[in-house]
Amino acid sequence: MGDFQTATNSFLTWFKSAGGEFRDDLLEIKDLRARDAGRGIVAIKDIPQETTLFTIPREAIISTETSKLAERLPEAFDAPADDEDDDSEPLDSWGSLILVMLYEYLQGESSKWKPYFDVLPQAFDTPIFWSEAELGELQGTCLTPEKIGKQQSDEMLRTRIVPIVLTNPTIFYPEGVAPLSEDDLLVVAHRMGSTIMAYAFDLDNGNEQSDDEEDGWVEDREGRTMLGMVPMADILNANADFNAHINHGDKLEVTSLRSDLKTGTEILNYYGPLPSSELLRRYGYVTPAHRVYDVVELSWNSVLSALADELNLPAEVLGEVETEFDEEELEEYFIIERDSGEPDGEGRLTYTAELREISPELEEQLKTFLKALKKARPDSFADKRKRGEICIAAITQALTAKLEQYPTSAQEDEALLKKGDLSKRHRMAIEVRLGEKKLLQEGVALMQQTASEDEAATEEGSTKRAKTKA
Ligand SMILES: C[S@@+](CC[C@H](N)C(=O)[O-])C[C@H]1O[C@@H](n2cnc3c(N)ncnc32)[C@H](O)[C@@H]1O
């Protein structure tokens, strides 16, 4: 038996001994590496709706409540004592769980979660680990270096997490184990951070009244709710079209959602309506089903420069008008997204996603801006009708300019994907940027359609006026 299967078997035995229930008459943990999906859980029988597939006792979850670290080093979770910066805060739920995970990982065999650590990943395909060349393939997409946040997480881990381990070797290392160097610790801390990003769950407290009780996935990653690593629930892969549900009660309970969960079907969790870029950033994979949620970010600056072009005005003139607004009055970025509906009660994506509008916020801001321009420069455009035309033309131009910011065209991307000899990361980057380009193209088409409709309405209006006069 290979190491992979041995680790799976030991994990399952450990899970049951930790009080977990797993319906192995209905399910199997499978090796899905052949399709780059690691481990997953697959039905080995037809499963009726609302069947409990497995349960996880809260004591089996790794969190600040279950690990001994909070007892052994309570001060680690307080605000730094000797910090001159009065604003420094205690670790948020992210930082706390990273510290707890480091502690349990460094305990090695002494950690009660050792067989669970043995099935957690050692390497990730999230962009935070990509080389400069690999990141170059994401140029133009929502996944900017700031969004990927490598520098930021490096800084946080170096200043807030690693020093706690370095100054408390007797707590973090079992007797006789040599402490890791600062650099090695940073590498492990990054690994734990990424594991949490892709595997942890926001835990609600089991209170039946909780609003979130129905959500197996909770999207808050901002440090407000307690995070925990939930063995077995995180062996489930996920998709936008899903078939299982996680209830947060006294125990966590995973149930089947579909009336027709057939033998051989993979049991799939739901991470939420995430665009491909976000799926890649947090989880290191993309799937076709998530494309309906793809988004593009259009900058106000790009719209302004398109506007300057359309109006044949120097950028400085628009800059002057801009100064009339308070900083908070003007949004810097606008999200373009389709109306994608919601999955139905059985986790199916049945809604036909469609781009119905570019961005109501952008349209409103543009209109307000053009009104201010008209006041400052009455001759800049004729009237309200012309203002509408300018809005459409500027947005169209900004969308087209955005299409040119990617390293390749949509056709080139399609051709690259067809060739098929791509690395996993390269392929995923192409899928992310192609998804954005398709949305931009839909945006351009929508603007063209709006322009023709407006033109037809104007013509109809003038014909009617002419007839009335006659
Ligand atoms: C919570 S884990 C799921 C278990 C994971 N497959 C394993 O072997 O440990 C989440 C990770 O699984 C992978 N994953 C989840 N859903 C996937 C899918 N539909 N296709 C491919 N990989 C997926 C991604 O690497 C993601 O970061």
TrEMBL record:
Q: Kindly provide the name given to this protein in its UniProt entry.
A: SET domain-containing protein RMS1
Annotated Gene Ontology cellular component terms? nucleus
Record PANTHER family: N-LYSINE METHYLTRANSFERASE SETD6 (PTHR13271:SF34), UNCHARACTERIZED PUTATIVE METHYLTRANSFERASE (PTHR13271)
From the UniProt entry, list the residue stretches annotated as the region Disordered.
450-470
List membrane-spanning regions: none
Organism equals Ophiobolus disseminans
Q: Which UniProt keywords apply?
A: Methyltransferase, S-adenosyl-L-methionine, Transferase
Q: Which Gene Ontology terms describe the biological processes this protein takes part in?
A: methylation
Q: Which superkingdom?
A: Eukaryota
Taxonomy of the source species: Eukaryota, Fungi, Dikarya, Ascomycota, Pezizomycotina
Q: Which InterPro entries match?
A: Rubisco_LSMT_subst-bd (IPR015353), Rubisco_LSMT_subst-bd_sf (IPR036464), SET_dom (IPR001214), SET_dom_sf (IPR046341), SETD3_SETD6_MTase (IPR050600)
The terms under GO molecular function for this entry are: protein-lysine N-methyltransferase activity
Q: Residue ranges of the SET domain?
A: 25-272
